[in-house]
Each structure stands twice: as structure tokens, then as C-alpha cells.
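Lab notebook page, bench 4
Experiment: in silico fold of construct C2
Operator: M.H.
Input chain length: 102 residues
Purpose: comparison with the prior construct
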Amino acid sequence: MAIGHLHHHSVSKGAQSDGKREMTMEQFIEWLRGFDKDNDGRISQDELKEAVRATGGWFSTWKSKRGVKSADLNGDGFIDQNEITRLAEFARKQLGMRIVGC
């Protein structure tokens, strides 16, 4: 199941493009969509690496590998809508993002 499509990098009100401001789960998903470069509705490791960089995070390659590994329940190498809650938990714990309602 796809996360959804977004054809530009806008973010919901209250969320900054760097992912540092406190945001709701819906805003987190909207923020992530901005990194879905191929618009397939899933987040790849490379796309997650760009999201980690946008938060100012160091070791973006390592963190993106860990993020996919921790959230990718079906082992396909991508984060889809069914796995987004696990990715939000990873973002809270490992990237210091404040996501409310997850």
C-alpha cells in the first residue's frame, strides 16, 4: 500500500521542511512525501537518507539503513503506509523528531 503521492515539496502547516518542529503523524507523512522522488508512494533507503540529512542528522547513510531495517516489516527494502508508524518511532528515537499521536 502506498504512502500517497505528492508532486511538490510542500509541508502541512506547523511542520518545517527540515522536520525539526513538533508535528502530528499526518504532518510527518506529508513531510516524508516530499522525499519520495520517484512518486511511487514508498520511501526507499536513498529517499530516507535525504530526509535524515534534512533534519541535520549526521551519518545519514547509516541512519537510513537502520531506519529501513527497523521499519520494513515485509522485507522489500521500502517503507510503505503499513510501516509508517514504525518509521515514525525510529524518527522519534534516533533523529530526535517530535511526532505527536504515534
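Observations: Residues 4-16 have pLDDT under 50 and may be disordered. The beta strands are 23-24, 99-100.
Next step: discuss at group meeting.
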